[in-house]
Amino acid sequence: MAAAQVTYDHVIVGGGTAGCLLANRLSADPQRRVLLIEAGPPDNYHWIHIPVGYLYCIGNPRTDWLYQTDPDAGLNGRQLRYPRGRTLGGCSSINGMIYMRGQSRDYDGWAAATGSDDWAWRSVLPYFLLHEDYHGGAQPLHGAQGTMPALLQADANGGAGDAHGNAYLQSLRARGAGGEWRVERQRLRWDILDAFSQAAQQAGIAASFDFNQGNNEGVGYFEVNQRSGWRWNTAKAFLRPARGRRNLDVWVNSQVQRLLVDTDADGMPRCSGLVLWNGREAVTVHAHHEVILAAGSIGTPQLLQLSGIGPGALLRQHGIEVRHDLPGVGENLQDHLQIRAVFKVEQVPTLNVLASSLAGKARIGLEYALKRSGPMSMAPSQLGAFARSDAGREWPNLEYHVQPLSLDAFGEPLHAFPAFTASVCNLNPTSRGRVRIRSPRVEDAPSIAPQYLSTDEDRRVAAESLRLTRRIVAQPALAKYKPVEWKPGTQYQTDDELARLAGDIATTIFHPVGTTKMGRESDPMAVVDARLRVLGVRGLRVVDAGVMPSITSGNTNSPTLMIAERAAQWIAEAAAERT
Questions:
Q1: CA distances from 567 to 9, 151, 300, 379, 458 (A)
Q2: I want to staple 342 with a disulfide (CB 3.0 to 4.6 A). Which of 226, 280, 487, 496 is the partner?
Q3: Same domain, 397 and 348
Q4: Which residues constitute the domain of residue 407?
Q5: Is 511 part of the annotated catalytic residue set?
Q6: Of 519, 538, 458, 25, which is closest to residue 290 (Cα–Cα)?
Q7: What are phi and psi of 256, to 5 degrees?
Q8: 329 plus 342 within the same structural domain
C-alpha cells in the first residue's frame, strides 16, 4: 500500500517554544495552509500546568525526551540528565518559567557574527515586545523621543539611526502589554531569599527590579511566565488561540523520520518535504513553500544528519547518503553549567522543613488550591542575581539561581535540615560541545557531548564564582541565620581544587543552544544564514535555539520566542514574493 501523501504551504517540525509561535503567525494568513508536527502528546498532563509540576515532568517519558550526556571529562567523567520537552509547548511546558531577554551585548554580538543588523539589540527589542504581556502594563522607552511604533519603523528602514542608536538602547527600559506571552511577578517571598538579596547588595551587587533592560546586573526576584499562579506555556499562549483556524492542522504523536531532499535543475539541493510516522502509517508531507525545523538544539541537528545534511564523514560512517556536506551541523553546542552551593541555616523557614511532614504538605496544597500561591506556585528558582566574576569584567558574566531548599540532585528528596542553595553559572562559557547521531535510526538518541569546563577560562570563572558565593554568604545580612557551607565545603580553596570541585557538583541549567548556528557564508561552521535559511539547501529553514551563534546571558526560552517572531515575518514575506 502506498504511503499517504499531503501538501501544505508551510510545514513546521516541532510543536515547542518556537513552533507554537510560528504556527500562530503563519496561519494568520487564511490563504496559507500550515501544518505543525509534534513528536510528543498534547499538553493535557495536569502537572504541566501547576508550576511545581516540573518535578513530575522532567524525567517523565510523557513530557521529556530523557536524553543523557556522554561521560564528560570536565565533569570528572560524570553523565548528566539532559531534559528536553516532548509535548506541545516543548521546553516551555517543563522549564523554569523565568522570563529573561539576556543582555544587549548578546545581540550585538550576533549582528557581528552574521554581518546583519537584523540581530542587533536595537532591532530585536521590538520583537520581544510584540508578544509580551507584562504585569505592569506597557512601559515606555525611558527618555525616548519616539514611540515603539516609531522604533519599529526605524528598524524597518535599516536601524534605529543616530538619535536612537545602540549605545542609547543599551540603557533603555521597555515592556510590552497585550501580547500572548504573559509575564508576572512570583506569588511568594521567603525571609532567607530576602536576606540573601540584602547580603548580595552588601557585597556590591545592586538591587534590581527588572532584569530585562539590556544590562541585567543586580539582584532581585525573577519574573515568570505564569498567569494567576498557573504555568503559561507557548501551547496556551500561541497555539490555543489559533486552533480554530481552518488552515492550521496540528499533528501530535507524529515522529518525523527524515527530510526529503531533491536536486533542482541547477544541481542545488532542495528540501521538498518529509516522511513521518504517526503511530499507524508512514505519511509523506510536501511543502509548497518551506519546511521549518523547530525541533530544538538536539532534535534539529539529529534530523538534519539523519537526512544527509551535516558533516560528510559522520554521515558516511552511518551509511547515510550525503545530500549536503555541512560541517557545522551539531557542532558549537553551548550550555550554562550551574555550580550548586548548599548552606545550612538556623532559625529561618525553608522548604526542607515546611515540606517535611504530611501536615506541612497539606498546608502547601491548601494554599495553592485557595490562592494559587505559595510553594506549589514556585518556579524552580525564585531569586536571581547577575554579577561579575572579577572587577575587570565590563559586563556581568555570572547568573545566580537562589532557592529556599536543598537536595543532593534534581529529583532527589529534600535534605532533612533547613538550608538554601545558591547556584551560579558562567553566562558566557568558552567551552564548545557537539551533538552527533549514533546510528541511522531516528529512535536512537544522539550522542550529546557538552564538553563542559574544557577551557582554562571556564575553569577559572568556576573558581571565581564559588569565591563570590562565599563572599555574599559571609555578609552581615545572613549572619543571624548562621549559614554553614555544607556543599562543597570550605576545605576547597585553590583554583585547581575549586575547578575540580565544580566538575563534581555542577549540573546543566537546561540551556543548550548553538548546534545549527547562524553566520556568514564564509564561516565554515555556519549552518544557517542571517535569515535562518539552511546554507546550500533551498526550501529549508531552522527556527529554534540552535541558531544562536553564542548563548544569551540568561535563560534562553524567551530569546527563542523572539527568534521565532523575527523568522515568522521573513517566512511570510518570502512566501508572498513567490506567490
A1: 16, 19, 16, 29, 32
A2: 487
A3: yes
A4: 187-221+337-426+454-505
A5: yes
A6: 538
A7: -70, 130
A8: no
For 516, half-sphere exposure in the C-beta direction (CA atoms, 13 angstrom radius) is 32
State whether 149 and 207 are in the same domain.
Answer: no
Residue 4 pLDDT: 87
Within-domain flag for 485: yes
Of 81, 46, 83, 51, the closest CA to residue 64 belongs to 83
Name the helix (H) or strand (E) containing 96: none
Helix (H) or strand (E) holding 324: strand 324-325
**What radius of gyration do the chain's Cα atoms show?**
23
With b meaning 16 or more CB within 10 Å and e meaning fewer, what string describes 487-499? bbeeebeeeeebb
What percent of the chain is modeled with pLDDT above 90? 82
Dihedral-angle region of residue 455 (phi above 0 means left; psi in -120 to 50 means alpha; beta otherwise): beta
Q: Which of 10, 49, 401, 511 is catalytic?
A: 511
How many CB atoms are closer than 10 A to CB 419? 25
- pLDDT tens sequence across 62-89: 999 999 999 999 999 999 999 999 999 9
Q: How confident is the model at residue 302 (pLDDT cuts 50, 70, 90)?
A: very high
Q: Which helix (H) or strand (E) holds 67?
A: strand 67-68
Residue 501 banded pLDDT, cuts 50, 70, 90:
confident
User: Has residue 173 been placed in a domain?
Assistant: yes
- Long-range CB pairs of 403-409, under 8 A, 24+ apart, other chains included: 403/351, 404/190, 404/192, 404/193, 404/349, 404/350, 404/351, 405/350, 405/351, 405/352, 406/342, 406/350, 406/352, 406/486, 406/487, 409/507
To the question of whether residue 13 is assigned a binding role by annotation, the answer is: no
Rounded CA separation 519/549 (Å)? 7
- Identify the band that residue 531 occupies on the pLDDT scale cut at 50, 70 and 90: very high
Cell of 311: 558533516
- In the three-class reduction of DSSP (H, G, I as helix; E, B as strand; rest coil), residue 516 is classed as coil
Q: Helix, strand, coil % (nearest 5) of the chain?
A: 30, 25, 45
Domain total in the chain: 3
Determine the Cα–Cα distance for residues 86 and 90; give it in Å rounded to an integer: 6
Place of cell 502506498: 2
Task: Tell me the per-residue pLDDT of 538-548, one tens digit each, with 9 for 90 and over.
Answer: 999 999 999 99
CA distance 47 to 235: 15
pLDDT tens per residue, range 141-171:
553 333 343 444 444 333 333 333 444 444 4
Task: Report yes or no: 296 and 544 within 8 Å, Cβ to Cβ.
Answer: yes
Answer yes or no: do 357 and 414 share one domain.
Answer: yes
Length of the chain in residues, anyone?
A: 579
